Amino acid sequence: MTSNFYNKVARKFGNYHTDARYTQEYPDNNPEEVFKEKLLSVSGKDKLALDLGCADGRFTLSVAKNFSYITAIDTSSGMLDAARKLQKEKGIANVTFEEQDAFKTTFDHSSFDVIWSRRGPTPYVESFRLLKPGGYFIEIDIGEKDCQRIKEVFDRGQGYGKWKNSRLKQIQKQATDIGFTVSYAKDFLYNEYYKSYNDLDLFLQGVPIFEDFDSEKDKEYLTSFVKQNSIDKGIRMERHRVVTVLQKY
């Protein structure tokens, strides 16, 4: 269902980004910046990289200059079309976008120096196979408490009801069982504040928090959530990310 969802988003918005207006407030660091910092710390002009779940390719292309070559994969043909269009606009040659299943790729063993997943799939077994000895798998994943309040109001959603199942601990166990060494692992909890009801509605249309979100059918739920979570800064959404760095020895 997920690839169909992203194809729908690509058809509607042209890429993975809506124009929803919001601000963010971090009690600690911005997890996206931490993820990028960790990724660039192991980059190199001699290194081959694999991006798992590249979506519209925006992030992939932004870091392309730091690697010798990047292969970026996704299962959404719509997102890949958007990525290739952006690549052509930017004139970046050292990236290839391919439609592939991250859990069962066609690449040879030990093909890459660095693999990353930015809120995408987390195929640890396949990534371990694809990495060269000494290579890194870096990810930013969605934590178990992400958007918990709105999911409770809607009584459904991505990871619904799994608030007590630590995603960080799951990653550490799965990774070490396969043979990875965990060199960094941290939870990040922060808030987003949406400017208006319409901004939050627009945001929900473009993300898989509710893959079946419908502005009309879900209006009652969204109205209730907005009433409960509106403060001076905006409509508050609690976010949760997990950043990990794994190495294959």
Automatic annotation (TrEMBL):
Signal peptide: none annotated. InterPro entries: Methyltranfer_dom (IPR025714), SAM-dependent_MTases_sf (IPR029063). Residues 46-151 form the Methyltransferase domain. It comes from the Bacteria. Gene3D superfamilies: Vaccinia Virus protein VP39 (3.40.50.150). PANTHER family: METHYLTRANSFERASE (PTHR43591), RHODANESE DOMAIN-CONTAINING PROTEIN (PTHR43591:SF110). This is Methyltransferase domain-containing protein. The lineage of its organism: Bacteria, Candidatus Roizmaniibacteriota.
